[in-house]
């Protein structure tokens, strides 16, 4: 499929909207009252710190809603205003935050049913409005909605579109796209839909496996089994690892994406020699600024003497999970929670340890004076962070 031509024709369609509807000011007022927090503004202006009784809170210097998420949520609110009586759908959670998604449900914005394996688009009718979330939608989904005669409101973050453009460039040169991401994450599903040949690697370990295969060969069946959900149809490691371009899910750990890019570059240089490298490898910087800033701020925060860290964000939020990984790497007790409702009664917490199910912990806030580091993922409104801080103050100071 010529994805570029399809996108071009979609962008010209009168049913396609990606620039809002001119209700920005009214919507901003509502968003500020629903998601902003005066306590967080106060902490920001106090050098990202606040003390109350036995508790010192240290906030990361970059956290919470990123530009792309704020834009997507604002566009969803605008869409409701612009189409007051139409049926509105979202192909997926607009962002990975339960409170924001709940609020949209209250506004009668419906989520396309998903049975764990596939989405049921039969519920969507001609003339319905369908919002594509900040992390985008696959080209097949866009085509299906366009064919149905839906009005499409595309909130895909421009940073994500930038990655898609890189993948289009790989395709034009008949290169395989190596995508650093999670094969079942919506953004990576969307990105891979723009590629011709692709292979998704989760981490440096998987990238190393692929590079060893490039240099030394290996067992083809084992390779295909290892990446069974993570490659394009008909992928052949013997043929399709000679010309490579690297792309990434925008919310992966920045340092790891860079290391993976360098590893493939080095491997292809070793295999084909420095003079041939440019013919075999291409790479574009597509790490999103917001992800980078939040991770950098976390690296600063963990240098401080913290009693513990609270990492706030949806449990399926990739960028939040990476923030927690940083705390763990630095040996700081850390708790990933998605809302204030995980706290209490009393000094109890339900949290999600990395790669595990939810766990309950008693007396999670130690006695005596404590310093609590706090950060939140790019989908988390300040209001949620405020409520969590207030809960911590209440437990420790009453
Ligand atoms: S994290 Fe980056 S890519 Fe994702 S929505 Fe925010 S700004 Fe866009």
* C-alpha geometry: globular
Q: Which CATH C-level class of the largest domain is it?
A: Alpha Beta
Residue windows where pLDDT falls under 50 for at least 5 positions: none
Strand content: 15-25%
The total count of helices amounts to 15
What's the gyration radius in Å? 22 Å
Q: Indicate the CATH architecture of the largest domain.
A: 3-Layer(aba) Sandwich
Please, what is the CATH homologous superfamily of the largest domain?
A: 4-hydroxy-3-methylbut-2-enyl diphosphate reductase, catalytic domain
Percent of residues in helices comes to: 40-55%
* Bound ligands: iron/sulfur cluster
Distance between the termini: 63 Å
Largest sheet: 5 strands, parallel
- What is the residue-mean pLDDT, rounded to a whole number? 94
In the sheet with the most strands, the strands line up as: 1-7-6-4-5
Here the CATH topology of the largest domain equals: Cobalt-precorrin-4 Transmethylase, domain 1
Counting helices, strands and paired strands, the structural category is alpha/beta
The tally of beta strands, per DSSP, is 16
Describe this structure in words.
By secondary structure, the chain is an alpha/beta fold. It folds into 3 domains: 32-65 and 290-397, Cobalt-precorrin-4 Transmethylase, domain 1 (3-Layer(aba) Sandwich); 68-157, Rossmann fold (3-Layer(aba) Sandwich), CATH 3.40.50.11270; 159-287, 4-hydroxy-3-methylbut-2-enyl diphosphate reductase, catalytic domain (Cobalt-precorrin-4 Transmethylase, domain 1). 43% of the residues lie in helices and 17% in strands. It is built from 15 helices and 16 strands. The protein has helices spanning 3-12, 24-35, 38-45, 67-82, 98-106, 139-148, 158-172, 186-193, 204-216, 220-226, 254-272, 277-280, 289-301, 318-329, 382-397, and strands at residues 16-17, 49-52, 55-59, 88-90, 109-111, 129-132, 151-154, 176-180, 197-201, 244-248, 281-283, 308-312, 334-337, 348-351, 359-362, 370-376. The chain has a 5-stranded parallel β-sheet, with helices on both faces. It has a 5-stranded mixed β-sheet with strand order 2-3-16-12-13, with helices on both faces. The chain has a 4-stranded parallel β-sheet with strand order 9-8-10-11, with helices on both faces. The chain starts with a helix and ends with a helix. The model has no long low-confidence stretch (mean pLDDT 94).
